[in-house]
Amino acid sequence: MEDLSLHILDIAENSVEAGATWVKISLIEDRKTDLLQLEIEDNGRGMSAEECRQALNPFYTTRKTRRFGLGLPFLLEACQAAGGQLSLESSPGQGTKVIATFRLSHIDLKPLGDIPLTIIALIAGHPEIDWQYYHRRNDWEFKFDSKEFKENYPEIAINHPMALKAIRNFINKNLSLIRREHDRG
């Protein structure tokens, strides 16, 4: 995969397939520690310790539509290529948390990609799920919560084109603000 947003899309889709009703995606960039941390957490059906070990094997999948499960192994490879690591926390009935770390200064760190478009694609494809997106760069942070959006704008479906445009603009604006502050520092 060319960028981290595609990894996020793939792992979040795994959450959907695992029956999650909420998914939290967090990106934390910290220049002081030279660390980028990606977390994707859900309340899906979860996995046993053995399933977690097998999930990192590209030749293991629980899907019936294909014989390979490449999402987590590809993310693990991207982490290792950029001096990081991947951990998987899960237990049956309790959901799953994927934590991927990368060295920010590493030459092989993949670009973030189009994060707003990724979040919009997830919302558009699965409007029934509560999506949370949190992004922090050093001391600047923001979050988006689709549940809050639905509560604040009950008259419009969250996957309506106007709602998706407003959400994308909100995310883009906030990412621009934290990038601008980052560039000043």
Q: Could you please describe the fold and organization of this structure?
A:
- The protein has a single domain (4-184), classed as Heat Shock Protein 90 (2-Layer Sandwich).
- Helix content is 40%, strand content 25%.
- The chain has helices spanning 4-17, 49-55, 71-81, 115-125, 146-152, 161-184, and strands at residues 22-30, 35-42, 86-91, 95-103, 130-137, 140-145.
- Strands 3-4-2-1-5-6 form a six-stranded mixed β-sheet.
- Strand 3 and strand 4 form a beta hairpin.
- Helix 1 packs antiparallel against helix 3 (71-81), helix 1 (4-17) packs parallel to helix 4 and helix 4 packs antiparallel against helix 6 (161-184).
- The model is unreliable at 63-69 (pLDDT under 50).
Secondary structure elements and pairings:
Layout: H1 4-17, E1 22-30, E2 35-42, H2 49-55, H3 71-81, E3 86-91, E4 95-103, H4 115-125, E5 130-137, E6 140-145, H5 146-152, H6 161-184
Parallel strand pairs: 1-5
Antiparallel strand pairs: 1-2, 2-4, 3-4, 5-6
Helix pairs in contact: 1-3, 1-4, 4-6
